[in-house]
Write a structure and sequence with these properties.
By secondary structure, this protein is α/β, with parallel strands linked by helices. It contains 14 helices and eight strands. It has a domain of 280 residues. Keywords: Glycosyltransferase, Membrane, Transferase, Transmembrane, Transmembrane helix.
């Protein structure tokens, strides 16, 4: 009797129709999302007219704005010397300094910096006694920076030689004086492992397609790249700096900038190289932090968008996609557990026909997702780095299956910690990942 009632509810009533529509939207969300990112990237490439991707010129030293390259560092003895040496000896720019924020390091980071200061007069450092996190270190350094522009540069990040020159062209030639920051295009440095090659494909998809799509729609952007982004210092001060109790300061600051009317920029022609996690454990920890940071930002801005939808209309697409992504993550995890339970139940009771039908329908959806994902990835690999990474397309299936499964799981796993952060129990302290010297790559 109960089953008849439920079937009637879903088939005949308005509520049933609405529920069916919602379920269909959630089932098709990954597929439609991939197609939207594809069309957005193509719009950026062929329709958007105000981008400065290749129209850059050399700025004479006398006209170069001062840039502070800020390196927040916590126990970075393996990488810090090579990174600083590269930045001083390989960048095609004159008017800059390097400011290392030594955030409570307990290794040899401090003495390495002191030794390098004898060689490089433009190297400065501030020692923070207790580790309180990257955002805290950045906020302190922001007030000691001599430059009117601040480049956030991680200790394991190597920008291309022309990076500063290209960055400043975006600000100097920007048609919009509200440009708050320009974020660059990431390239994976450690590609020797299968996991590294897979992330090469993934970051090309995220950076190459999604950021282009976001930039083509009202210049909205979910997140800067915390590893390498050039900020205009005035806009950092306008929003009170980075939120110090957030898991991802780069996502948070991007949303804060856009809610005050500032404009973020994506620069696909500026490439920086960085290391990515090389073990499943480290990768999962990284994705948990990203997922928690994204949820924290969504929860922080939820009230603003609900109460003031007209005022926030230019960022509404960004908010709606984040909302759908979080809801879909719970939908994916819940239905996956339900699917496994039902398959076991049917197998125990010998109902193999239902198992066959369930796997057939699932296979159809997965096939559509793989096709949509491949379209997105191939587009990304063609557009990004002048198609130099097209050879990594063979690793696309691994990316599609792994990323689409890990992402919703991490969102669900970190939802409660994200809520705790919003309630005032967050912490910005960090632990530096295990590093390998660049010379060993």
């Amino acid at each position: 009797m109960y089953n008849i009632f439920i079937d009637h509810l879903f088939e005949s009533t308005t509520l049933g129709t609405i529920l069916n529509i919602c379920l269909l939207i959630l089932c098709l969300y990954p597929i439609t999302g991939s197609f939207l990112w594809f069309f957005g990237a193509m719009s950026y490439r062929f329709i958007k007219t105000d981008k400065e991707d290749d129209a850059w010129t050399t700025i004479p030293p006398s006209k170069q704005p001062m840039i502070t390259i800020m390196i927040p560092a916590h126990n970075e003895e393996v990488m810090i010397e090579e990174t600083i040496t590269y930045l001083f000896e390989n960048l095609n720019y004159s008017n800059y300094e390097i400011l290392v924020m030594n955030d409570g390091s307990t290794d040899k980071t401090e003495e390495i910096i002191q030794r390098l200061q004898e060689k490089y007069p433009r190297l400065r450092t501030i020692n923070i006694i207790k580790n309180k996190g990257k955002a805290h270190a950045f906020n302190i350094g922001m007030h000691f920076a001599k430059g009117e522009y601040i480049l956030s540069n991680d200790a394991d990040t190597i920008p291309e030689p022309d990076a500063l020159m290209k960055y400043m062209n975006f600000f100097i030639h920007a048609q919009d004086m509200n440009t708050s920051a320009v974020t660059a295009n990431m390239d994976v440095q450690n590609r020797s492992s299968l996991l590294g090659k897979s992330q090469t494909v993934e970051f090309s998809s995220i950076v190459g397609v999604i950021k282009r799509s976001q930039s083509s729609i009202n210049d909205s952007m979910y997140a800067y790249s915390g590893a390498n982004t050039l900020y205009k210092k005035d806009f950092l001060i306008d929003v009170g700096g980075f939120r110090q109790n957030r898991a991802t300061e780069d996502i948070s600051i991007a949303w804060d900038h856009q809610t005050i009317g500032a404009v973020p920029r994506f620069a696909p022609n500026i490439v920086f190289h960085m290391n990515v996690p090389e073990t499943i454990h480290d990768l999962y920890k990284q994705r948990k932090r990203w997922a928690q940071g994204g949820t924290e930002v969504w929860l922080t801005n939820l009230k603003k968008f609900i109460l003031h939808p007209i005022k926030r209309r230019y960022q509404m697409s960004m908010f709606l996609d984040s909302t759908l992504s979080i809801i879909w993550s719970f939908f994916f995890v819940i239905t996956s557990f339900a699917f496994i339970f039902l398959m076991i139940w049917f197998a125990i009771h010998g109902n193999y026909e239902r198992i066959y039908h369930a796997f057939s329908i699932s296979f159809i959806f997965v096939s559509f997702e793989i096709v949509a994902g491949l379209l997105q990835l191939i587009t990304a690999l063609l557009l990004d780095h002048h198609a130099a990474k097209l050879k990594y397309v063979l690793f696309a299936p691994l990316y599609i299956l792994f990323y689409w499964m890990v992402n919703p799981i991490t969102v669900v796993m970190t939802f409660i910690p994200a809520m705790k952060t919003i309630l005032g129990f967050g912490s910005g302290t960090w632990v530096s990942p295990k590093r390998k010297s660049l010379q060993n790559k």
